[in-house]
Amino acid sequence: MILIYVIGILMGGGLLALLLGQWNRNLPRWIALCTVSVGFIAFVFFWINQYRTVNPHLTNTWIIDYRHDWIPSFGISFHLAIDGLSLLLLVLTFFLGVLAVLCSWNDVKERVGFYYFNLLWILAGISGVFMAMDLFLFYFFWEVMLIPMYFLIGIWGSENRVYAAYKFFIFTQASGLLMLLAIIGLYFIHGQNTGLYTFNYFELLGTVIPPHIAFWLMLGFMIAFVVKLPIVPFHTWLPDAHSEAPTAGSLILAGLLLKTGAYGILRFVLPLFPEAAHDLAPWAMLFGVIGIIYGAILAYSQTDLKRLVAYTSVSHMGFVILGIFAFNELALQGVVMQLVTHAISTGALFIMAGMLKERLHTRNINHMGGLWTQMPQMGAIGMLFAMASLGLPGLGNFIAEFLILLGAFKANVLLTIIATIGLVFSAIYSLRIVQKVFLGPSERSDHVSDFSFREIIVMASLTLSIVWLGLYPQPVINTVKPMINKLAHVFTPENKNVQNSYHTTPLSTHKYLVKK
Amino acid sequence: MNNLLWLVPVLPFAGFLILALAGKHISRVWVAIIGAGSVSLSAILVLIIGISFLSHPPATGYYSQTLWTWMQVADFNPNITLFLDALSLVFIFVITFIGALIHIYSAGFMASDKDYSRFFACMNLFVFSMLLLVLADNLLLLYLGWEGVGLCSYLLIGFWYENPVNGYAARKAFIITRIGDTAMAIGLFVIFYQFGTLAIPDILTKAPVLWQQGASIATITALLLLAGGVGKSAQLPLQTWLPDAMAGPSPVSALIHAATMVTAGVYLIARMHIIFQLSPIAQMIVAVIGAATLFIAGFSALTQYDIKRVLAYSTISQIGYMFLALGVGAWAAAIFHFMIHAFFKALLFLAAGAVIEALHHEHNMFKMGGLKNKLPVIFWTFLIGSASLAALPLISAGFYSKDQILWYAWASEGGNPLLWFIALLGAFITAIYTTRMMVLVFWGEAKTEIGHHPGKLMTVPLIVLAFFSLFAGFIELPHNFGHFTLFSDLLHQVLPETVLKAGMNNELQFQLLALLSTFGGIYVAYVFYYKQPQRIEKLKQSRFVMNLYLFWFSGWGFDKLYNTLIVRPIVFIANVNKNDVVDKLYQGVTFVTVSLYQSLSFTQSGSLRWYIMGLVIGAIIILSMQIML
Amino acid sequence: MSGNDFFALTPLLLLAGSSVLVMLLIAIKLSHRVIQLSSLLLFIVAFSSLFYIQKSLPYHIEPLLVIDGFSVFIMGLIIFSSLVVNILSYIYFEEKEESPKEYYVLLFLCTLGACVLAVSKHFVSLFLGLEILTVGLYALISYLRVRHHNIEAGIKYLVLAAFSSAFLLFGMALIYLETGSMEFSMIAHSLRSLPSLSPLFLTGLGMMLVGVGFKLAVVPFHMWTADVYEGAPAPVTAFIATASKGGVFAVLFRFFIMIDGFRFNVVMLILMCIAIASMIIGNLLAVQQKNVKRILAYSSIAHLGYLLVAFIPGSVMSIKALSFYLMAYFITTLTAFGIVTVLSNKETDAENIESYKALFWQHPILACIFSSALLSLAGIPLTVGFVGKFYILAAGLQSGFWITALILVISSVIGLYYYLRIITTMFAGQKSILPAEEKANPVFYMVSIIALSVLSLLIIWFGVYPSGVMGFIEYFKLK
Amino acid sequence: MKSSTEIVMLLAGLLFVLGVAGVIIRKNIIFMLLSVEVMLNASGLAFVAAGSRWAQPDGQVMFIFILAMAAAEVSIGLALILQIYHQHKSLDIDKLKEMKG
């Protein structure tokens, strides 16, 4: 039930903020803060409990399962369930949610109620995406998070916001609709095979799909996820959306929305279409590597700080796709780490870009420089996160990238080597950020203030998290371990051979097994 | 006492944390005390641990201490484990001991800097990372230290960040070393999939079992690790960053870019020596790289006018010697040279720093001169350092370490006459540029007024280092000259002994030749720079010599080469593609949509007759489809 | 005709009677307000009579009419939309027209025509219903006769409608000639005995498609749509977009079901082409359109294309999907035009997109209602439009019509752009400092807004919890 | 099929096409309406012919409906035309192009 309550609290809090925002400007942000904090605390406690009590080698990976009929005539149910991966991402969602509320504390001055309404509803949609175990419901939440995001960018963004909002919405919507087609296709294939028409994820897992159809259905799912992720060449919405969105919007976009794409691939594409995914793997990895390099080169040439960071996201997400399609436990664990650490490090960079914008009224790094003198704290933190972004050992991103590359090396040596070269490029652009913003001769004579107390809280929590993840990532690894193990199990070569002997038996108790 | 090992890196780290978090609120004295004190404490601790390690050597030859499991994924489970054996003992001794001296020196040197606490924070962080590097039990932890020292090097080179040139040098250093690191990371992948572990002891035991002598996988792995070492140790072809790195404060150059970090490559190769031994080709390449580097860096050093750049090129060249030694299988000799080099090069940099500060930040040697009497302490310590660098026979420590390398370059299994000859030539050049530097700085007439004299905090470390530069060599004497092998005995617990070719016993001749080359070099420099400086001017009139001079001066044109081949094309592509060519695709889609809209909207002309026409045409199409199909 | 026949025809009789009654009320010079309220009451009575006759379903009145679950459902939709249009009409006509009363008579007649279409199963009743509807619409469209646009729209609609009616009639005549019957089931019967389809029959079917296609405003018979929507008074536009199309679509569907037209590959191919062209061209035409009424017109072309996507498979799922989507489309379109109506002032309709600027900050409620309608038209979740679109895709994919489904998806992305454009306009700009203008009829204004709020709540309610409605539709299955 | 039906149907078709051509060609609204009437009557004729083929009265019933409908249409049409003339002082259909795009 906690799952329902969480979504309910977020949506309710949003409505409350909207209504009370009419007559008090301060109330909405306190409501938002309380709402998100409650969710965060609830999930952290839940996680700690879970972590203590549950054995990571357990076969049943599901922690909570809640189900209620929704549209029975279509076999659609309001089915929420979480396993380690979902739990982890939910904790992340609420963590960044709290930060998003905090970092827009003074940023937003107009239409405060509506702003926090949108913020909370985005979080609700994202939480829903991470919990939904009914494909229809999943799509539902997938789209629900878009509209408030559209408003967030379109109303509170900077100069070019309308264009960015359109672009964001149309890209994600177009790809999402293709996924809807694939979902319905899967629904009918499953129904025609078994006579049971349902959108239930667990039922659909065992669907026997003719290979050529499976490939197209998988592409339908993939397109939605790779646009969200994003993978070159579907990435062009991202720099615009990120750079035009308000700080909290960029934070949520980079920290959470992109993660839903990776989550979707892990949760749906691989288990539902293992063989098609297997066929796609070399291409997916290739595009991942192209993304790594291409994103990095583009990041290097940007002069708009937020745009620059946005392109680094493209580069980092290339690692994610590379890792996912390496299909082994190392890489997949790396991917999960990458999701978490990228959310933190890129989120921090966006927050910092927002703070700089607030102080300097520009995002152009050519107009910055020498800020260390006046803002040593921000300089140090900025340096730290630039280092995180280039994958410095000891910080979380390194663990993620190293595990991904280590895993991917097993799958494809050549591509991994090229991807590793991407690390050099990441050093180039990260150091460029530091150099242009904080180092060099001071460009300004007026006073620029360093962190305020609220900002220190925000940045300190991010810093602690990234260092913690860099030095002791085991809690994260253990939490997702059962899920990842199961997933990796599907793709181990020995298993494939075993599978061939299963050839004639259409039904098997194991949900993730590959069937021909 | 061994179980206090964790404190050795933790002390400087604690210093870093205190200075980083509260540096603004601590007085400068306390900053110095915390900064230098933490490293000094750790140096003392190392002494204690070292004594206990030597007096009660562990049965396995090493001592390891697991702090916690870093992560555990599938069969990949690196720990945060510290690992102490003879090799790492030597390194942590050098790091903490020289580190402490340099910290003390810095307390005086940086006294007037506004970012005092930031400097010490970074220095402490560096010591921590470097200790982690050499104490790491597995390659991943080593990599952590490896990148950590890179970060600190970056931070400290660019310490005076207001000047963009420093920032550029810092970035160059970081990025070029990162190229090597990347190759090393790939090497780690290979190792992991070959041995299923990254723990160094396991790798070293498994390698000879799993791999054939001369197996190509061994070569590949060794070369990938070598690439890492080459980057960090500024060897050919990744040597270009080190001369620029001199933009940092002199203590930084002394600690990071002379004594410790740049020798990390030497440490790595020595640490993974079994893999290198399995691949004679790779080992040969190490030797060749070392020889080529020492040669070209020597010539470049000859032409510099910036005192720190001379020292930088000389560092590259000296590390070349160490690589050469590693390559020919003279493992202990390489480590010995590392230690001696750490002493005298740290000394030289610190003394140079004192000179530079005394002369109002004047780096140009040609504007110095006549300091012999004005800065006597500096002069004498610098002289001792130079003697060691030039390997002045018998009395300097440098002679003992370098002579060993020269001998092994000829006589060991992997050695050959060509390598030996290059090394000898290198020694000759070393003597020339060292003497040139001495002459230009300390003799002749004074060209710049002296500002303030170095205080006690600065001179005491110089004197201590000078002492070691003179006498540290006596712990390892040549076979025909006392045959005192304290140091190599210690190291041979870890590293294999050097195998000599058959029938090599005429070591004396080679020592004499080395001696000759040193004195020859000193004489040449004496003639050209002291006796008849006009000869140089005369030589420079020749076009060829001038071009050669400029070529050497620019570090053999490597910077230019890399700029044209790699940097410029990438920057060009990046700038051309700034607006993302992929986006054009989507703009094209938009354009098509809008043009379709415009042409369709043209059909909505508002004319009823046109609408009727449309209706009729539609009807005709439908009817003809009905009937035709 | 027996008593039972009359019983079954209660809704139609009520509608017909209402028109006479209203005429009488006008004759005794009652005020506009009274006329409006009484006609509202009569619509409610007619609507509730639908529940009343349910028990006796299905009921055939040979040979012309059949009253079954499907027709009752469609009639319900039609009467409901007329009811809403009726509510919206008061404030619209009160300030623009000195004699607005006869409007209600025409509205009843048009509703009657549309309802007759929904129950007809014979060419004669089809023709009658269609013409009652169309002739009434001519007058409604040009009701504000002093406005140039109204008259222009009226004459365009008149000429084209008559022209296409001629096609329809000629087509019917050909089919009658070939099959010897004008009753759908008899036609089906005689078709079954024929070895192959004769060209005359096919020609007839084709010509009928032209006629019906015009009424539905599908490509290539769509060109009148924008002009008529723009020119007609906003409430009438709402009526054209909903009730008139719903009736025609119902009869087309019944015709195809009864003659089992889904087996004629050529016809289906043509319908597919029409569907595809409607979706693409309809959406493209709206891309940069500045006039909101025209945007909604073009979007209605696309939506009819979507409906055809569900129509083509002709499966059981199709019926449900069509019913659901028609309902979704009705509610949404009524809401959208309702907003246009409410925002219109005495001189002009609120059709320029610029007049919606900063609406969100001036009339947040109206803006929210309009946004919900637009998002529903765009098919975004949380709205009924999404469930409808999902239903259509499901119906299409169930029978393997991937191409039409794919085109639907792609074209709805284009559609998204212009819906978003309106929404963006509403959110753009700042709150103006001008005081809100005084409304002439605050009570009716409030009533209209309440009605629209209810509609938009329905949009969201059905979007979040569609299973109730789905069960309801299931209950009204055809046959 | 009886040959007389065929001939009548041909005539109806011819009339229909004539009507279509008339609507397309004429620019005067009144003539356009007239042409539409021709088309409608052609359809009526076709119904009569079809009814006679099957010896049913239905075709003629339909014809009467068509007549009634045509009359209603023309009456509204003429009213509109009056209004147009009133506003535009012209019956040229090509001048009625205020709405487009």
Structure description:
The complex is a heterotetramer of chains A (516), B (629), C (479) and D (101). Chain B contains 26 helices and 2 strands. Chain B has 629 residues and is mainly alpha-helical. Chain C is mostly helical and 479 residues long. Chain C has a domain at 264-479. Chain C has a two-stranded antiparallel ribbon with strand order 1-2. In chain C, α12 packs parallel to α18 (402-427) and α17 (384-398) packs across α19. Chain C starts with a helix and ends with a helix. Classes of the chains: A mainly alpha (516), B mainly alpha (629), C mainly alpha (479), D mainly alpha (101). Chains A and B meet through α12, α14, α15, α16 and α17 of A and α5, α6, α24 and α25 of B.
Can you lay out the helices and strands and say which pair or pack?
The complex is a heterotetramer of chains A (516), B (629), C (479) and D (101).
Chain B lengths: L6 H16 L5 H28 L7 E7 L9 E6 L1 H24 L6 H20 L3 H19 L6 H32 L4 H11 L5 H17 L8 H4 L5 H10 L4 H8 L1 H5 L2 H24 L3 H21 L3 H28 L17 H14 L7 H15 L5 H26 L13 H16 L14 H6 L15 H25 L2 H8 L1 H11 L4 H19 L4 H23 L4 H21 L1
Antiparallel strand pairs in B: 1-2
Helix pairs in contact in B: 1-2, 1-4, 2-3, 2-4, 3-4, 3-10, 3-15, 3-19, 4-5, 5-6, 5-10, 6-8, 8-11, 8-13, 10-15, 13-14, 13-18, 13-23, 14-15, 14-17, 14-18, 15-16, 15-17, 15-19, 16-18, 16-19, 17-18, 18-21
Chain C lengths: L2 H6 L1 H18 L4 H22 L5 E3 L3 E3 L1 H26 L7 H18 L3 H19 L6 H32 L4 H10 L5 H18 L6 H9 L2 H25 L6 H22 L5 H20 L4 H28 L15 H4 L1 H15 L5 H15 L3 H26 L14 H23 L2 H9 L4
Antiparallel strand pairs in C: 1-2
Chain D lengths: L2 H23 L3 H25 L4 H31 L13
Helix pairs in contact in D: 1-2, 2-3
- The tally of helices of chain B reads 26
Q: In total, how many beta strands of chain C?
A: 2
- Please indicate the percent range of residues of chain C in DSSP E strands (runs of 2 or more): under 5%
How many H/I helical runs of chain C?
A: 20
On the 0 to 100 scale, the average pLDDT of chain C is 89
- Structural class by helix and strand composition of chain B: mainly alpha
Features of the shown structure:
heterotetramer, A: 516 residues, mainly alpha, two-stranded antiparallel ribbon, 20 helices, globular, D: mainly alpha, Helix Hairpins, elongated
Give a quick summary of the entry.
The complex is a heterotetramer of chains A (516), B (629), C (479) and D (101). Chain B has 629 residues and is mainly alpha-helical.
